[in-house]
Amino acid sequence: MVSYKINKEIIKQAIREFHQTKLPPVIARDISVPLNSKKIVVLAGVRRSGKTYLLFSLIQSLIDSGIEKRRIVYINFDDPRLLPASAKDLEVILEVYWELYPENQNKSNYLFFDEIQNVKNWESAVSRLHATKKFHIFITGSSSKFLNKDIAAGFSSRVLNFEILPFSLPEFLRIKNVALSKSAPSSPAHFAATKCQEEYFTSGGFPEAVLQPDPALKARILKDYVEAMFFKDLSERYNIKNQMVMRELLKFLVSNTAGIFSLNAFWKWIKTIYPITKRTLIYYLSYLEDAGIIFMTKKTRCEGSEKGGNSRPRKTYIIDNGLRLVYGFDFNKDKGRVLENSVYLSLRRAQAGYPFSEIAYWRDGRHEVDFVLQERGKVRELIQVCADPQEFKAKEKYITPLVNAMAELKVNRSLVITEGFAGEEKIKNKKITYVPFGRWALTK
User: Fold this and answer.
1) What is the pTM for the complete model shown?
2) Residue 321 contacts residue 338 (beta carbons within 8 Å)
3) Which CATH class is domain 8-164?
């Protein structure tokens, strides 16, 4: 078996390139990452969500605070010169760094390892580096496994996890230099904010797409993400044999964003076109979850049966609404799904402040409440999503189930997130507050 080892000269070249090259301009993110934690800081999220530029932002903050750039090492393991790489190669990087800067051995230094999942058995090496207490360590990875129990237990106790998603609406508006307007609906400021929010709903928050002003090129970027990043990466990582099934599965999930997903129903349909086992389909679904492309929520456990949350179909959401543009879906024809997906992503970002929180849904027959926010098994908040509460039958479809859920879960107040409608009402002594998504998102 061939044993690979990174060439020291290549490592020296990579370190010197970083020290001699000016950092690119960065966009501030609404996430607070500690710079001098005693733990390993892990930034996890789908590719192209902005993890690398967040690292650059942290590095710039260190430099601005007076830390010499030579006390900082940045290595990107997407660099083909450094692949294949293993745990031993991380120690080679350390050897090279001490050779270059022996004067830093008695100082506190900073290691930034980008896309660490490309390094085989990286956990053991990072743990050893952390144990030396000579480095503050920051790593990024493109896998949801960085955020959950799949990381080895002995390692996970040493980390601080941060999930990095594409730009939120507040970040998007800041980039566009647009503020949410409290002006009259007919004012230019209101029109500008409305147009900007619709662009966000349509093309999403992937940084590269957001910064591209040409709509055609924006769509091309998102399509390339799906083809090159998602399918190529997934195929290589999991050795997917039936790519057509994976394509159909992702297309179905994107088109049915914020809907209940029945694995059995999808399998019965897809197997009439492609020969595939149900177990393989389960694997494919888990791969999409692992890559951070889709998220799934369960029916709330607070409805009497502890088994109820696990035995019912799950609702699915996607990493970014821009994926719908790739498949030709129009925001204006499906506002409800896009709005709900945006609310879910905002709630997921906010979970960092509630480490024991869970996002679930409530369902009673054919009616449902989109989000039940729970903490340690107790209901903290109910949220329903309704683009226009004044539309025909909106009360029957959205508000009546919400009132029923409030009664069953013993909640006296709840929230309805809308596209633009604001107000309050009381029904059966239950208070319901209507808040436009843009205003609500600024609080998350």
Assistant:
1) 0.91
2) yes
3) alpha beta
